[in-house]
Write a structure and sequence with these properties.
CATH architecture: Alpha-Beta Barrel
Number of strands: 9
Strand content: 5-15%
CATH topology: TIM Barrel
Helix content: 40-55%
CATH class: Alpha Beta
Order of helices and strands: HHHEHHEHHEHEHEHEHEHEHHHHHEHH
Largest sheet: 6 strands, parallel
Structural class: alpha/beta
Shape: globular
């Protein structure tokens, strides 16, 4: 019986692959030649399990090519910094971002995540690590001036579109990067950082991370950080933080906030997603929630048991890696990513991702949702939404659900541009200088 079931399963998979092959984006068909021989082949991806409507697909492509498309969170900055990865080449396994895929995906603006691991809080060097990551983004833009341009404003993103280039922006992921110093925050702004996630999954000295209540939200210094970000024109990012920290940030901020890579908690009940009451408050604030594509955040009920089973199965291997690379957090994370990527979870249909956009539109409104996929910050994504080259599939799925071209433009990047521009206006009203009116307050050592 088991053998018969196995044969039936294999036959079903083969028939499915044959059926969807024509819908696989061209970028997904190209793989690193070294990866073909040394790593497991990734599952083919498609934007839908049903046959594609070719006329609608062509309409989607036309809309997508014309639109300004902004991705507010991509972690490819890590291999760029650790290994001097050049974006013109094939991404090192298991990462997926390069210039070719960004162009296929129609990306106009990309926020490179400056993700600073909590290890640097305990062992020192958080600010230096941030500087190293900033340098990697500058290097990429300087290497490829015909394809990339450094960007620090909403206007720069529009200029990139006009020049058929990709705007390279930067966002700090983890407020511990500023080492409790407002002057350091300003220095990062001078270097081009245009958002900061107030925490990562670790609570810092002035803000609670998701699921924690050490400070009951933001401390007085944390509130001062938000006000200084407003004064500078740096977007306040409330992804990763606790609900109380979100609420406090919304109370304090004079500018619209962003959630750079979070989805809807009502659809997938994880603490990293935004509950409905705060979605409504973000809308009232004028902010925007950039939907995260990571499978667990898309469908917790389906993915959590699968992820738990994988975790148990790989526990011994993961523990061995933790011991081997105990003093090398970057290599540990890279090897852990490889281990996870070699054991992928069953993919979700892309429709479940679009459900999050639908829900945020229903609760917060069409002006308050965008895209923050978290590519290269996770390994498991829905079908047809596994790397930057597949973003046109989002436009196609939105058309299928009846969204207008105007509304799709807002979701792809228009809403983020509006919020960015409004934050810049608030900054101009608050101060005409970067440092002159700024506090020199620091806490701790």
């Amino acid at each position: 019986m088991k053998r018969r079931r196995l044969l039936f399963s294999i036959l079903t998979v083969l028939l499915s692959i044959s059926f969807i092959a024509s819908a696989i984006p061209a970028g997904a068909q190209r793989t690193n030649q070294r990866q073909r021989t040394t790593q497991p082949t990734q599952r083919p991806s498609t934007s839908t399990r049903s046959a594609r409507d070719e006329a609608l697909w062509q309409r989607a492509l036309a809309i997508h090519r014309r639109a300004i498309v902004v991705d507010t969170h991509n972690d490819v900055t890590t291999p760029m910094t650790n290994d001097d990865y050049d974006l013109s080449g094939n991404p090192p396994y298991p990462y997926r971002t390069n210039i070719d895929r960004l162009k296929k995906g129609g990306v106009t603006g990309l926020f490179f995540s400056l993700y600073i691991k909590p290890w640097y809080v305990k062992n020192g060097g958080a600010a230096r690590r941030t500087l190293d990551m900033i340098d990697s983004v500058y290097r990429a833009a300087e290497r490829h001036p015909n394809d990339l341009m450094l960007a620090t404003s909403a206007a720069d993103i529009r200029h990139a579109k006009a020049q058929n280039k990709i705007a390279c922006l930067m966002g700090i992921e983890g407020g511990h990067a500023i080492e409790n110093s407002l002057p350091t925050l300003r220095e990062f702004y001078r270097l081009g950082v245009r958002y900061m996630t107030l925490t990562w999954n670790n609570t810092n000295d002035w803000a609670d991370a998701r699921g924690d209540n050490t400070h009951n939200g933001l401390t007085d210094f944390g509130k001062e950080v938000v006000r200084e970000m407003n004064r500078l024109g740096m977007l306040v990012d409330i992804s990763h933080v606790s609900d109380k920290t979100m609420s406090d940030a919304l109370d304090v901020s004079k500018a619209p906030v962003i959630a750079s890579h979070s989805s809807a908690r009502a659809i997938s009940n994880v603490a990293r997603n935004i509950p409905d009451d705060l979605l409504k408050r973000i809308a009232k604030n004028g902010g925007v929630v950039q939907v995260n594509f990571y499978s667990l955040f898309v469908d917790q009920k389906t993915v959590a048991p699968q992820s738990d089973e994988r975790g148990k199965r790989l526990q011994a291997q993961q523990e061995a890696l933790s011991v081997k690379y105990a003093n090398d957090p970057e290599r540990l994370a890279e090897e852990s990513d490889k281990l996870e990527a070699q054991n992928p979870l069953p993919p979700l249909p892309i429709s479940k991702l679009i459900d999050h956009i639908d829900h945020i539109v229903k609760i917060a409104g069409i002006d308050h949702v965008g895209l923050g996929p978290d590519f290269d910050g996770a390994n498991d994504f829905p079908e047809g939404a596994r790397d930057e080259s597949m973003l046109p599939n989002i436009t196609y799925e939105l058309l299928k659900r009846g969204y207008s071209e105007q509304d799709i433009d807002k979701i792809l990047g228009g809403n983020l541009l509006r919020v960015f521009g409004q934050a810049e206006m608030v900054a101009r009203k608050m101060s005409r200088t970067i440092s002159g009116g700024g506090s020199t307050r620091r806490i701790g050592k």
